[in-house]
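Translate sequence into structure tokens.
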Amino acid sequence: MPVPHHPLRLAVALDAPQAPPPSDAAPYLALARLAERGTLDFVTLGDRFGGPGPDALSVLARLAPATERLGLVATVTTTHTEPFHVSTGVATLDWVSRGRAGWTVAVSTSEAEAALVGRRPAAPADEVWSEAGEVADVVGRLWDSWEDGAEIRDRATGRFVDRDRLHYVDFTGRTFTVRGPSIVPRPPQGRPVTVVEVADAPDAGHAERARWTVAAARADVVLVRAEDPGTAGAARAALHDRARAHGRDPGALRVLASLPVELGSPADAAGLADLLGDWYAQGAADGFHLRPVDPARDLPRIVEGTVSTLRERGLFRRSYEGTTLRDHLGLPRPASIYAPAREAVR
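Result follows.
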């Protein structure tokens, strides 16, 4: 099992046991600043479509001006949200954070949530995950629909955009169509980071197979819920194989083991560092996504204990070297898919 040669990636979930009102960002601010002090790659925030809990995109957009380097990854439900709105919402977060945005793809299968929208009945999980893959595809195309340099902003001539650098997407999926182009200029990262969470095995049913397909074909980061390093490492290898089958470079896919964390005492933080270091040495993952039971209690212990120990062992950064989430993850900024076609015409 190959051992990664780069410093490990580290992220943490901010989801609290008692969620504050949907737009209340205050409880998350201190946590985000603490995570940034620990030079974590990113934080994630879940979203409950139509139910109690935070509006993840709105909350993280409010945290963006109060942080400087920390990646901000919001859960977005694709099932009852127009792809155009997904694209503009995540692009806006990337703009207000100056290139630190990502989104976790999520779906909805409940009749209650379908009734809130009234557009269609609930569908099986495998169907909505297949749709989510199409949404992730067209969202990327919408971000690309403004090439780099499309904005002119020339007051003297009155020209705002170079029309040759704007493109129609003209995408037809099984449940939606999108013409484009986007109404938001191309995000600072080109394409904000796409995250998909999966179980540790792709054969756990039709829905999980569909989710794995989306992860292998569309994700920049995959969060794998695994209980041991062997299982996590096998999932990482399988995801690399599937990414390669989709014509992707598996080296551009970051696979993080997603682990629940409960640190009852500060001493438990030295033990967590041992576990992460051991899994990492075995090549189980490129890094870890920690899910604290109580972020207000556990995150300080992660930053002050676990992160400090990992730094002492040379496994984790002491400062940010880049400014964007893609920089933190070692992912290149992609060119617009439409740029080569335009150049070929010339």
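Note: The first strand starts at residue 9 and ends at 13.
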